[in-house]
Aminopyrimidine aminohydrolase (Acinetobacter kyonggiensis), 223 residues
Amino acid sequence: MSFSQDLWQRNLALYQKTLALPFNQELAQGTLSQEVFSHYVIQDAHYLLAYGRALAVCAAKAFTADDVMQFSEAAKIAIVVERSLHDSFMREFDISKTQFETTPLTLACHHYTSFLTATAWSESYPVVLASLLPCFWIYAEVGKDIVNHSIANNPYQAWIDTYSGEDFHQAVRNVINTIDQVAARCDADTLEKMHHAYTTAAKLEWLFWDSAYDQRQWLGLDA
């Protein structure tokens, strides 16, 4: 069994819980509240900027020139996608630039982005890579499942197309191949740290969608 296969099997139950979240089920059926989706899009745009920064640090720590190019390009794409959210989803759902810029990170988004950023700066390349993989892999698998169950003329079809498209899935396969190559060079302690980083990020993926569905905020903590 490859390292990536072991990762997936260890976290399969968590993935299935993520797939079963009301956010993802209602997104597939096109019944997700526009208010909930707008909340999610704003937080996702904030998230992608931090994710792009973490990918850039990952590229700087990479073992090979090919890996440097792979994750430098991934960092660029994360920012391009973040900007496209402003030009497409945010415009479609009447989210202004001011509204986006003045909306703070939720607890879930703050927790997830802080984890990725701290891991990127403080851990070794293999562990950083493992922490970044769930956002690639889980989104791809969720996107694949949603497109298989999506209704016709789904109002969220553009989002579905982004994460179920072949370009994204090929990028995910490339990252999985990279982490298997990297893991083959690691000792047992590093491999366990990689497993822990992946599982933590996978839990935060679950939390991000769960939090978005309930539009959870920093309630009662205003100055």
Observations:
- The CA atoms of residues 24 and 131 lie 22 Å apart.
- Residues 34-61 form the longest helix (28 residues).
- The radius of gyration is 17 Å.
